[in-house]
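seq as requested:
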Amino acid sequence: MEKEDIDQLNFEESRLISLLNEDSEYAFQLIYDKHRNRIYQTAIKFLKSPIIAQDVVQDVFMKLWFERHKIEPSKPVEAWLYTVAKNNILNKLRKIANDWKAIDLLSHTILQSENNTDQKLTEGEFKQKLQSAVSKLPEQQKVVFILSRFEKLTYIQIGEKMGISPLTVKTHLSRALYAIKKQFEANEVFFSK
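struct tokens:
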């Protein structure tokens, strides 16, 4: 590409940003069309989920629209978009990692409760209390818990099966595990940490 072509592209992008600063939905659409696929590909590379990658694209362009008046026409919008995308991806990865740690800890805690000498339960009693606690969960939490813990499906598989996002699956599972823990505590089955 020659210098004149690059200068022309920079001018066009600068003009698009100026129009965006003036609330042009058309300029926004052109920027979206130009950059969405690369942002999506970057997100899916790290997140391994089409649904979460699409959430990143949506978050990035929502932020672009909400902050359109702050973006300087003299600076390349691509750098801004990819910085926002990178931060969004890192935040989602941190959240997923933290959720997995919490779920893993609670799962281990439930299993360790069987070995608690003060409140030793037989396997049958434990299963009965677990089944009772699961039956009291709201329907979606119950389904997510069963698919995750008994059928060993991933968040993505559960989300596809139920028609919800993996992050929603994670939220339902976290709430279900918390409610189950509270049910066990109400029955004086305490979990060691």
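The chain is about 80% helix and 0% strand.
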